[in-house]
Recover the amino acids of this structure.
């Protein structure tokens, strides 16, 4: 019974993942329509996605692999939220366990939230510490707790989840984000993970708070009034030069051997965008310290906010051709149009008239044709990139002319397989009839022979006796 329940649980989980991929990951179904801004970004890889429509508005090296850094903690937060039934559950910090996972040749890559041995914090508080500050203490304690006492086991859970989400270029080896060339991901994969995370539990709360102060009493080691965790993304801090209104912090990462990375979300005028930037340099060409990841994110968001508007690139009232119709009552053709209008976010600097239409219509259409009947498709393309494919439907109905139908049927009957079938059937019937005739004749002849009269040859003595009688009669007469 337990095995059956386990199989049912796995089956239901796969259904949920499939539903998510269809409903909440629109970029998996839509086509990338990347535009080129009038500026360059310094990050080595990047994506700008409109979450509402799933349109990829900008991309740079989206499938090139880079180390995740502390971006890995987005996946960790997802699994904790999916496996925790009580966010108020308390966990006691174990410094020996944490130190075991702090061993790295680049210790400056690790981030801390001033969590000490013996501190008692809730799962909720540890999630805030991890998401806002990239706390290595919080990430280890959470992984150990929800990996059933095994951080390595939790890493296996993260890799399994990544595969379920279709992240084919991602591999996790640790939960803190420390330097490891084997721990890698891509901008496209991080987009899938983050968009999934935004649908899970209270993830948005943990990832978008500007700051958080734990409330579980740990007064022996902390001044609770000063124990405050601030989001590492300066774009959400109003007192910094990088502040951008409408931005949610999500996650940042820093690796000395790779650079800075950032994932953030921005909303303006009802449009929500997701930014993924990987491996931005720490310094400019002259060696000066730079925060290119923040500059790139700001530039992309401002570009999206100001230079993109919704445009109808194809109206449902546009006639896109006509198709000849055979045997129509009052018409020999029917016009086709899109089944629906297509509207999308369009870069104001791009000419929408440059959108190409690849139209494919059905052939050999015969009446009757119903208004709205699918008769083809149109695929919209821009600069070789496929935008979408829309059905083409009949604008009117065409009734069937029976007269034309029968004339056409008679005219083309010799060219149809029905003639061959009719001839074959006729020959078959004739052959069967002839065979039956021969059979009937044979049966009749056999019956006639069976019932014919039998003539027996008389014996010699009987003949002699009969002759004697005849002779006597003749003598008497004389």
């Amino acid at each position: 019974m337990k095995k059956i329940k386990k199989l049912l649980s796995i089956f239901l989980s796969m259904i949920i993942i499939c539903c998510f991929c269809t409903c909440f990951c629109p970029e998996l179904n839509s086509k990338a329509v990347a535009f080129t801004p009038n500026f360059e970004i310094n990050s080595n890889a990047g994506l700008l996605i409109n979450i509402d429509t799933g349109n990829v508005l900008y991309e740079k090296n989206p499938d090139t692999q880079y180390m995740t850094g502390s971006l890995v903690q987005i996946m960790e937060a997802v699994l904790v939220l999916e496996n925790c039934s009580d966010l108020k559950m308390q966990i006691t910090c174990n410094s020996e366990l944490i130190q075991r996972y702090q061993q790295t040749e680049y210790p400056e890559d690790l981030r801390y939230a001033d969590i000490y041995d013996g501190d008692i914090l809730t799962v909720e508080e540890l999630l805030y510490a991890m998401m806002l500050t990239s706390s290595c203490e919080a990430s280890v304690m959470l992984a150990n707790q929800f990996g059933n006492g095994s951080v390595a086991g939790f890493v296996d859970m993260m890799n399994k989840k990544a595969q379920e989400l279709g992240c084919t270029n991602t591999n996790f080896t640790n939960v803190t984000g420390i330097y490891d060339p084997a721990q890698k991901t891509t901008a496209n994969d991080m987009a899938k993970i983050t968009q999934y995370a935004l649908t899970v539990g209270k993830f948005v709360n943990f990832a978008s708070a500007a700051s958080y102060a734990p409330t579980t009493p740990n007064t022996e080691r902390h001044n609770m009034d000063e124990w405050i965790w601030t989001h590492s993304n300066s774009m959400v801090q109003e007192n910094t030069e990088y502040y951008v209104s409408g931005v949610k912090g999500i996650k940042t990462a820093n690796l000395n051997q790779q650079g800075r990375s950032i994932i953030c979300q921005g909303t303006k005028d009802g449009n929500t965008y997701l930014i993924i930037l990987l491996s931005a340099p720490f310094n400019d060409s002259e060696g000066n310290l730079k925060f290119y990841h923040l500059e790139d994110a700001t530039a992309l968001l401002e570009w999206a906010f100001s230079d993109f508007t919704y445009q109808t690139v194809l109206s449902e009232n546009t006639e896109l051709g006509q198709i000849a119709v055979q045997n129509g009552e009052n018409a020999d053709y029917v016009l086709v149009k899109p089944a629906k209008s297509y509207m999308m976010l369009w870069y104001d600097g791009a000419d929408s008239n440059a959108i190409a239409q690849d139209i494919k219509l059905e052939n050999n259409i015969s009446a009757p044709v119903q208004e709205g009947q699918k008769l083809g498709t149109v695929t919209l393309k821009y600069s070789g990139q496929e935008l979408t494919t829309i059905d083409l439907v009949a604008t009117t109905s065409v009734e069937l002319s029976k007269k034309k139908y029968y004339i056409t049927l008679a005219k083309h009957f010799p060219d149809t397989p029905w003639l061959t079938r009719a001839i074959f059937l006729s020959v078959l019937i004739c052959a069967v009839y002839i065979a039956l005739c021969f059979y009937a004749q044979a049966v009749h002849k056999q019956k006639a022979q069976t019932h014919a009269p039998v003539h027996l040859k008389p014996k010699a003595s009987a003949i002699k006796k009969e002759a004697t009688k005849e002779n006597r009669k003749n003598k008497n007469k004389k």
The radius of gyration is 43 Å. Confidence is low (pLDDT under 50) at residues 1-31. The longest strand covers residues 259-268.
